[in-house]
């Protein structure tokens, strides 16, 4: 078993419950970890035998571009797509962070963490 991690995927999009958030948008950061059997690709040196992290990054960017009120909803969509589109992933964890959230205080970010196992 092995892990592939994508750290700090940065996107600007418009999630949030407030109408202003939908209009103005804000910065987000996404961290993604997947577990899979990486032994075949370690031996073969072939992309077809592993989890393509270019594809994982694309999934995150595409799902983050779809407006949601809740970060939990976005994180769930990301996980569902990963399991649907990559059969060798056995576990995935996604952390979606809103940078400078409108909380009425000085908060660097708020993060939602969800995980799924096959």
Helical run tally = 4
Number of strands: 4
Mean pLDDT: 93
Radius of gyration: 16 Å
Ends: how far apart?
A: 14 Å
Coarse shape: elongated
Low-confidence stretches: none
Q: Which structural category do the helix and sheet elements fall into?
A: alpha+beta
Q: How can the largest sheet be summarized?
A: 4 strands, antiparallel
Percentage of residues in helical conformation? 25-40%
Q: In order across it, which strands form the biggest sheet?
A: 1-2-3-4
The ordered H/E elements are EHEHHHEE
Share in β-strands: 35-45%
Molecular structure report:
GO terms for molecular function: dihydroneopterin aldolase activity. Residues 4-116 form the Dihydroneopterin aldolase/epimerase domain. Belongs to the DHNA family. This protein has a four-stranded antiparallel sheet. The two termini are 14 Å apart. It is an alpha+beta fold and 118 residues long. The chain has helices at 19-24, 39-44, 53-64, 71-85, and strands spanning 2-13, 26-36, 89-99, 109-117. The radius of gyration is 16 Å and the shape is elongated.
């Amino acid at each position: 078993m092995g892990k592939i991690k994508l750290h700090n995927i940065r996107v600007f999009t418009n999630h949030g419950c407030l109408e202003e958030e939908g209009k103005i948008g804000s910065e987000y950061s996404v961290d993604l970890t997947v577990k899979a059997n990486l032994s075949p690709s370690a031996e073969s040196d072939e992309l077809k035998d592993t989890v393509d992290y270019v594809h994982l990054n694309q999934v995150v960017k595409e799902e983050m571009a779809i407006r949601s009120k809740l970060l939990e909803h976005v994180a769930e969509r990301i996980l569902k797509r990963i399991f649907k589109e990559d059969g060798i992933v056995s576990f995935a964890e996604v952390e979606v962070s809103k940078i400078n959230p409108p909380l009425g205080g000085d908060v660097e970010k708020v993060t939602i963490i969800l995980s799924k196992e096959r």
